[in-house]
């Protein structure tokens, strides 16, 4: 793993709220940009697959091609295995491993997919070079990442915005890059890909159930996951954290609340 920053903790955590959201991902939404590049019979690697919901849906698209979901926290994979069994899919498997050192030979896969992974990494370029290595010549990569600079939220106030500033500090501390999505075309080119295209879409939270759920997650992020870090680094005080949590909870209950997360997408081909 020389040449890149060490892997730090996944800032989003692996609590019940996170795993539930990951397990409910919909490929027709999250992976719509990549679907036109896939066809039956392709072998595919899903990097940073988490519980594997998208992995299983990808396996249905490229069947009978073999699909592997890889994540460095393999204890999540039981969810994906159950979803695959329930769907009657035998062409999908899961492995534990690092995106910086993919446990596969050169020129193994026809396609590689990475959803909401690279912007959490200290060295996304190293990960992209690994994806390039394991792709066959002519193989295709699809990546989708947040770019917090394009987020839309309303209504807002100073305490809410300062809470979001804290969230971005935590992401950066753990190696993440909060405005990485806009760099997709450049990063893919530098990693050796060609025929590169970029696009963008939004995950949206515009009904009470979803805004409430997202505000609950922000509270979990600051209060349970990263309170000690925020305090030890001197980024905020106990009283300020309490005020941020109140602001998030109030926003989640507001009948006018709306949030849209910017997602940037990139597709490239290995020569």
Itemize the secondary structure elements and their pairings.
Layout: H1 16-23, H2 27-30, E1 44-47, H3 53-62, E2 67-71, H4 77-86, E3 92-96, E4 109-115, H5 124-134, E5 135-146, E6 152-154, H6 158-173, H7 184-190, E7 194-205, H8 208-225, H9 227-232, H10 238-253, E8 258-269
Parallel strand pairs: 1-2, 1-4, 2-3, 4-5
Antiparallel strand pairs: 5-8, 6-8, 7-8
Explain what you see.
The chain has about 270 residues and is α/β, with parallel strands linked by helices. It has a single domain, classed as 3-Layer(aba) Sandwich (Rossmann fold). It is about 40% helix and about 20% strand. The chain is built from ten helices and eight strands. Strands 1, 2, 3, 4, 5, 6, 7 and 8 form an eight-stranded mixed β-sheet that branches. Helix 4 links the parallel strand 2 and strand 3. Helix 6 packs across helix 10 and helix 8 runs antiparallel to helix 10. The radius of gyration is 19 Å and the shape is globular. The two termini are about 25 Å apart. The N terminus is likely disordered.
Attribute tags:
alpha/beta; 22% strand; 39% helix; disordered N terminus
Order of helices and strands: HHEHEHEEHEEHHEHHHE
- Whole-number average pLDDT? 91
The assembly state of the depicted protein chains is single chain
What is the CATH homologous superfamily assignment? Vaccinia Virus protein VP39
- Principal-axes geometry comes out as globular
Instruction: Report the CATH topology name.
Output: Rossmann fold
Low-confidence stretches: 1-8
Number of helices: 10
- Kindly, what is the distance between the CA atoms of the first and last residues, rounded to a whole number of angstroms? 25 Å
The top-level CATH class is: Alpha Beta
Strand segment tally: 8
Biggest sheet descriptor = 8 strands, mixed
* Computed Rg: 19 Å
User: Approximately how much helix is present in the residues?
Assistant: 25-40%
């Amino acid at each position: 793993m020389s040449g890149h920053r060490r892997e730090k903790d996944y800032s989003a955590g692996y609590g019940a709220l996170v795993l539930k959201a990951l397990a409910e991902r919909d490929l027709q939404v999250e992976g719509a940009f990549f679907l036109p590049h896939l066809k039956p019979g392709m072998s595919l690697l899903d990097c940073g697959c988490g519980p594997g919901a998208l992995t299983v849906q990808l396996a249905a698209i490229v069947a009978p091609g073999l699909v592997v979901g890889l994540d460095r926290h393999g204890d999540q994979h039981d969810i994906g295995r159950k979803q695959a069994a329930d769907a009657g899919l035998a062409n999908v498997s899961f492995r534990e491993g690092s995106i910086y050192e993919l446990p596969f030979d050169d020129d193994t896969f026809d396609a590689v997919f990475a959803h909401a992974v690279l912007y959490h990494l200290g060295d996304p370029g190293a990960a992209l070079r690994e994806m390039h290595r394991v792709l066959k010549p002519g193989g295709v990569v699809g990546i989708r990442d947040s770019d917090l600079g394009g987020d839309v939220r309303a209504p807002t106030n100073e305490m809410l915005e300062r809470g979001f500033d804290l969230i971005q500090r935590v992401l950066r501390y753990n190696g993440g890059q909060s405005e990485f999505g806009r760099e997709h075309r450049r990063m893919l080119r530098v990693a050796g890909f060609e025929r590169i295209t970029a696009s963008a879409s939004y995950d949206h939270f515009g009904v009470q159930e979803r805004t409430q759920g997202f505000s609950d997650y922000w509270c979990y992020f600051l209060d349970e996951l990263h309170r000690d870090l925020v305090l030890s680094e001197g980024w905020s005080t106990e009283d300020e954290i309490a005020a941020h949590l109140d602001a998030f909870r109030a926003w989640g209950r507001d009948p006018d609340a709306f949030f849209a997360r910017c997602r940037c997408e990139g597709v490239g081909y290995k020569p």
